[in-house]
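SUBJECT: A protein chain and its fold
Encoding: whole-number codes for local backbone shapes
Chain under study, with its fold:
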Amino acid sequence: MSKKQTENINNEELNNQESAEQTAETQAEAQAEANESEEQAQEAEAPAEDTPDAKINKLTEDLEKSNKEYLFLMAEFDNFRKRTVREKADIIRNAGEKVLGELLPIIDDFERAIKANEQADDIDAIKQGVTLIYNKLIKYLEHNQVKAIESTGNDFDTELHEAVTTFPAPSEEMKGKVIDTVLTGYTINDKVLRHAKVVVGQ
């Protein structure tokens, strides 16, 4: 091999080595740039830490929102309370109107009986008319869950009776029992409307 050929071979190897080194450097630079881009992307994606001012602003916004919701709920509750009171008053008023309205026919019967009594000579007819009106009134009360308290002969019960006086019992069995009813008591829906005034055996 001639000297010139040897030089050509050495020059080719040197060129190949330089090309390989340049390629390696280029790849290293590209890898470095890729790593830097990835780090920048991660930094961009990472949320920035809240500053104290940002936290204060967020808490202030949350507080204002809570206050608005609280005021809204208070207004709603106040409206509900007023509506409930109004509805309750309407129910009581309407119930009173119904009760009084149904009493009017009985008053009409009393008026007719009074007029008839002015011209009637038959006492038995007058008694019968008053009894009919009384029975009609009792049925009306029972229809509205108002019932008379059975007292005479029953045990004295402070839940139902009010003793106005005591009297010697006519027999041993009547001690502690109601001997006489001075004023009839009534219940409504099983609740005492008026205590019966009674005489108790002693």
Notes: The mean pLDDT is 83. The first strand starts at residue 146 and ends at 148.
